[in-house]
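Q: What would this complex look like in 3D?
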Amino acid sequence: MWTWFHRLASPPTFYRLADRFAPWFGIAATGLLAYGIVGGLFFAPADYQQSDAFRIIYIHVPAAALSLSIYMLMASAALVAVIWRIKLAECVLVSAAPIGASFTALALVTGMLWGKPMWGAYWVWDARLTSELILLFLYAGVIGLNQAIEDPRAAARACGLLALIGVINVPIVHYSVEWWNSLHQGSTILKMGKPSMNADMAQPLYACLLGVYFFMGYVLLRRTQNELLLRERGTAWVKERLESSNV
Amino acid sequence: MTKRQKRMAAIAALLVGLSLAAALGFTAFRKNMMYFYTPSDLLAGTSKVGAKLRLGGLVERGSVKRGEGLSVDFILADCVHSLPVHYEGILPDLFREGQGIVATGSMQANGAFKADEVLAKHDENYMPPQVADALKVQDGKHACAPFKSVNKVEAAK
Amino acid sequence: MSSDFLNMSGYAVYVWGSYGFAAVVFAWNLIAPRLRRREILKELSTTE
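A: Here is my prediction, written as structure tokens for the whole assembly.
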């Protein structure tokens, strides 16, 4: 188990595996997202209360779910990076932050565009919206720290610490709608028991959810490869790849 | 202890301390993080006349009376207690009888709530109109669940 | 495409605005790492 783990964590092995898997992630993401978006926009019936405005859900919920999942992934990488000082974990940590930030921003913007016509306001300071905004600031903090500190290893350590401290915000975002009164609705899909959604509406949503995870996988592999190339500059495997133009 | 074990201990301590601080903070500030009060809270006498606050609940069926211009009166309920609300202004598209709403305003001396802003709070259920008609979606315990009493006033008897 | 579909029961600005911003986010996630890769390769090939 440990030898397998160490081999996977070795930069040349990971780089090669990423090259092999990334295209499949890309294909899966394209297929699932195309199916989900077309189904959501064209085939899903309109909602009994929100009519066509509810179609924002096919972007909003996957983006929001991803914003939390990427944070957990980033924090796991941070744990490994801070304790075991594994280079690959450092690369994953700093690569996950911009992806997470972009999807957190997408969740916030689509939420605002949904809130205005349905609630009557773009923004309110309820527990869900406020904690999701803090999530964006945490991502921004990790990105900023990484850019501000010259030495990549020291930067990764600082980013890792911030990412670990911020982990406390993740359950708050998720459970905010249960713990406190909020304007935001409770969970439709990501909850215990039956989803509170008609099957014809839910099916494209599941496709979009799965699709964004594959998309995240694709982008994360490519970004992690970039970080590995930079940190491993001058090593034999990078030189070899540069010479054969196989990068 | 090796250096690695020391780092593990430090991170574990950090996370435990953080969770503890968060848990303490939430118990202390639970009320402040509540976005609105319920009619039960207001009737339990926890608010002063004229103080700005938010009130959330369900618009009681058959209670909406439109007056001159944009003025509207309705009863807001949380399945236990209810309060009359007066509002003048534009209502959100989702405002209707049986709908959850959050109103910002203040209690008046006459026991009614005067709202300056009304926002709609929809629930987590999504379905096509035909299904909704067949189900005849009713107010009930389920519809009241999102409206939690801030001061833990005794709910349904 | 029917104008009914584009109109989204009057919520066109909000629905299409959301999908439009989503397109921007997806495109940025695809393009940014690719540009960065090009940058890194240029940097590595000149210094080594």
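A: To summarize the key features: The beta strands of chain B are 53-59, 65-66, 71-77, 82-88, 100-107, 113-120. Residues 3-33 of chain B form the longest helix (31 residues).
Q: Very helpful, thank you.
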